[in-house]
Design brief:
This protein is an alpha+beta fold and 402 residues long. It has helices at residues 21-47, 52-61, 79-89, 94-113, 118-131, 257-279, 293-322, 331-356, 367-375, 384-400, and strands at 137-138, 156-160, 163-173, 181-188, 195-200, 205-208, 222-232, 236-238.
Length: 402
Amino acid sequence: MKKGESDLDQSGIIDPFIRNEREASIAAMADKLASVFADRAPLHDAEGSFPFENFDDLSAAGYLKLTVPKAYGGDEASVYEMVLAQERLARGDGSTALAVGWHIGMLLQLRLSDAWPKPLFEQLCRDIVEQGVVMNELASEPATGSPSRGGRPQTTATRAEGGWIIQGRKTFSTLSPILKIFTVTAAIEGCDRPGLFLIRRGPGVRIEETWNTLGMRATGSHDVILDHVFVPDDEVIRGADAAEKSAPVPTEAALLHIPACYLGIAYAARSFAIDFACRHQPNSTTVPIAELPNVKRQIAQMEVDWITARSYLYQVADRWDREVGQRAALKPELGLAKYMATNAAIRIVDQAMRIVGGLSLSRKLPLERMYRDVRAGLHNPPMDDIVLNNLADRAIHEMRGD
């Protein structure tokens, strides 16, 4: 590898956010996968089918173990490295990137929080490394909406001899077609806080293929039905007698895989539009449209959004990694990074379609899929209203000296 090659972007431009050889290696892995996934994305989007072959490739490349602790055979990626990998993977296929993001984000969260019993966590990590197992926490339900808003689950956990009986339905269950194990939240009678239970796919677990959406059509986010599923006591993550931690370990940075994904989609749309503008020359002009003042202005508007949102996202991820003692205080910044990235991504894809014009609506081109996919970012946590409210509260408290 020649000097400087490792930090080249896909367009051949040096990426300032690749700072060392390890990050260059992670980016190269994600780029290689993204190139393959981009060719498959149109068919999976059209069919709404799950990309099983993509997850075979992710496993073979070692991507699934990216955030697993080194002690268990993983790469123990930092938040910054996770963001880098996810952003570049999403340039090929947003659905695959968002889906696997829940897996690697959850593993990062578990690594930070140390919330699982050690034997269970160790076995999970080894299953990921050795067998390519994927993982997710299923918390959304029809009646509660987003779990980030604190709704009480209607899924129930009832005491039984030697364990618990779980009964309920989970929605937005991303990765459901390949989940062999997963966790679910469930209400426990007499307990204000929901329990958390490890579920193994088997008797009583059923997938209902309900996922037929505008965007992110290939994430496999179907409903999961739990019909009298038994969970033994030693696979209860948080039960009725679990004590609330007085100072919970901050883990919100694990959700930065979300804004990284949407910026990756935006980058792909931006690059497609600029390449189109450099090549497209209607017979009414003497130069490609990239030379026209109005199109230059549109390209510049994409660049403003892209550079600003990306810079802030990587800055916050880097601060989280370095400023360990300030992590709790960084929560508003983490939300702001997601707010900036997802809203900028929507504007970038919209602008890209304006540059390409009526052709951008064609299903033969990727822009209409990217336009649909970035809309999903508004519905991933944290929601815009929560982010803005947190920022306002902090500003008010600072002014009052609270």
